[in-house]
Write a structure and sequence with these properties.
alpha+beta
């Protein structure tokens, strides 16, 4: 299958809306007709982990394309090379397909923030999906990272500074149900096989203890946070993830203007207007393949 056919195939099987497919397919064809050699250069840079958002944007603009629609089209055309990389690394086909869903997620996020327009801007992160450094296993994504905090101990197991650890990323395309997260932990444990007792970590606004001030105790956010021992947290009045809740074009200096379309938007807005804040938390737990092990449960 050629680059165009493979890119369209990936868009279709990962759930692209018809309106986005209709918009991006002629741009993909135009790129191949006008600058296939330029695309080959980007493929080479991708393989060597050298490609950047700036390079992709410049390539799109050199062809007279809208840079964000061009970025989406180029990314879909690169999925053929990404597929080769996955096969070379022995990564199963199902994981490749699930991980490529991030392209559709980025497109949908862009459309949400731009009145339905087709495009994307998150190439920097998605390029890590493309080379298999960040992989999706069920509901969540993972990468192997080095533990950067002071030694952590629970249940007689110590995670030392510098030890490998599974870092969790949270795609935005589905509700974050703890039951789905638990299944994802099992899948990731079996895939990576880091150690009989594997440490997992998450650094996110979703693991910020202050979320208790505006979330119900039985909310998905609090239930997910309670999976972890929170080692550190930091207040972030203009948290970089506010865009995930209110969109990229929200006026983050004026929370009184925030939308109130969802219960989360309403409760967080009220919290901020009361003088509250958002933040980031660093959470960790140990996993034995069947259950999580934390200090909370130990005590």
């Amino acid at each position: 299958m050629n680059r165009y056919g493979f890119g369209v195939h990936i868009a279709e099987i990962t759930g692209f809306g018809e309106e986005h497919l209709t918009a991006v397919k002629p741009v993909m064809a135009q790129i191949l007709a006008q600058a296939e050699d330029g695309l080959t250069v980007i493929e080479d840079h991708l393989t060597r982990h050298m490609t950047t958002s700036a390079e992709v944007t410049a390539f799109a603009e050199s062809l007279g394309l809208d840079k964000d629609l061009g970025m989406l089209a180029i990314t879909l055309l690169l999925t053929s090379r990404a597929h080769d990389i996955y096969r070379e690394r022995g990564i199963p086909e199902a994981i490749f397909t699930d991980t490529m869903k991030n392209i559709r997620i980025a497109c949908n996020e862009y459309a949400h923030d731009n009145n339905g327009k087709t495009g994307m801007t998150r190439y920097a992160f998605i390029s890590r999906n493309m080379v298999g450094d960040v992989l999706r296993h069920g509901r969540l994504e993972y990468e192997i990272e080095t533990f950067s905090k002071e030694d952590y101990e629970a249940h007689g197991i110590t995670v030392h500074t510098g030890d490998p650890i599974l870092k969790i990323h949270i795609p935005s395309d589905e509700p974050l149900l703890v039951e789905d997260a638990e299944e994802s932990f099992r899948l990731a444990y079996r895939y990576y096989r880091l150690a009989p007792i594997t440490p997992f970590m998450c650094e996110s606004w979703l693991t910020y203890p202050g979320n208790r001030h505006f979330c119900r105790p039985d909310s998905n956010i609090i239930r997910f946070m309670e999976c972890f021992d929170i080692l550190e947290s930091e207040d972030c009045p203009k948290c970089g993830d506010l865009w995930r809740i209110y969109g990229r074009h929200a006026d983050f200096d004026h929370p009184e203007t925030f939308s109130e379309n969802t219960s989360l938007q309403r409760s967080l807005k009220a919290h901020l207007l009361r003088g509250g804040t958002m933040g980031m938390g660093f959470g960790i737990f140990l996993y034995d393949g069947e259950k999580r092990l934390t200090r909370k449960e130990q005590n």
